[in-house]
Specification:
Layout: H1 2-16, H2 24-56, H3 78-83, E1 104-107, E2 112-114, E3 123-128, H4 134-145, H5 147-152, E4 157-162, H6 166-175, E5 182-184, H7 189-193, E6 209-214, E7 220-225, H8 238-262
Parallel strand pairs: 3-4, 4-5
Antiparallel strand pairs: 1-2, 1-5, 3-6, 6-7
Length: 263
């Protein structure tokens, strides 16, 4: 009797540590958990492969878009190289490496703007068609909204020039909420000095869509006249404008360095 009692006690003891039979609901939950686990494994593998792809396509943790080209193109980013030249432009005269003609024009900021007064700064000068063509003003708003990236290229100031009368321009900059100084050139004296009136859709009586970067010493470092043939572009995306400037300045610097080395 004692031996039978011990075996019975052992079986009872074993039952006391066993899990109770699962209910149908619990079994369904367990099957769903196993299915989720089986699906999670391949999903984690996909994420791992994607992370590996990103890692292989970056350099030192830098984003792909800012990875520097290593094909002898200086320090131009791959993004700038891809975006530059997508909008056709001409290069009028006076062009790069020539002295920018000095000028004095009335400004919407009250007073007279003189180009030589900003020596020591890198300036972006924008010739636009005028009040009658809204895309030119949309362009200026986009530049103002993204001014930080222009400063990153070393451009520290900007002025715009058009042939409209000063009173009308003052109202326009208020309407457009612009703080960029706009200069009035009603007799086209400055526009003709820079031939900016030869690259537009409306003939030589007004400007087109021209940009110049002028160095602290007064030299023209880069120029693009977008408003003329073949495409007559009067508003281009800021990333494309920035790319054209960046590539143009880099090429000019590279050419200057090669010339100095040869001499």
């Amino acid at each position: 009797m004692r031996r039978h009692s011990i075996r019975t006690d052992q079986r009872n003891k074993h039952r006391s540590w066993s899990k109770p039979p699962s209910s149908p609901g619990a079994m369904r939950r367990r099957r769903r958990s196993r299915a989720f686990f089986l699906l999670a494994i391949p999903a984690a593998g996909v994420l791992l492969l994607f992370a590996s792809f990103l890692f292989l396509h970056t350099a030192n943790g830098a984003p792909i878009a800012t990875k520097q080209a290593s094909t002898g193109q200086g320090n131009r980013s791959q993004t700038a190289v891809k975006l530059a030249g997508m909008y056709a432009f001409q290069v009028g005269q006076p062009g790069p490496s020539t002295q920018a003609p000095d000028f004095r024009l009335s400004s919407t900021t009250d007073g007279v703007f003189k180009l030589s007064a900003i020596r020591g700064k890198t300036a972006l000068v924008y010739f636009l068609e005028g009040i009658s063509y809204q895309p030119c003003w949309d362009q200026m708003q986009a530049i103002q909204a993204n001014w930080g990236v222009f400063r990153a290229l070393g451009i520290t100031t900007m002025v715009a020039i058009t042939t409209d009368p000063l009173a009308a321009l003052k109202q326009k900059v208020v309407d457009e909420e612009l703080i960029i100084p706009v200069l009035s050139d009603p007799d086209l004296a400055v526009s003709k000095a820079y031939t900016a009136n030869l690259y537009g859709m409306m003939g030589p009586g007004c400007d087109g869509h021209s940009f110049l970067v002028i160095s602290p010493s007064g030299l023209i470092r880069w120029r693009a006249d977008y408003g003329g043939a073949p495409d007559y572009t009067m508003d281009l995306p800021v990333p494309n404008l920035l790319a054209d400037i960046q590539v143009g300045l880099t090429e000019k610097k590279g050419n200057e360095e090669r010339m100095n080395h040869e001499h």
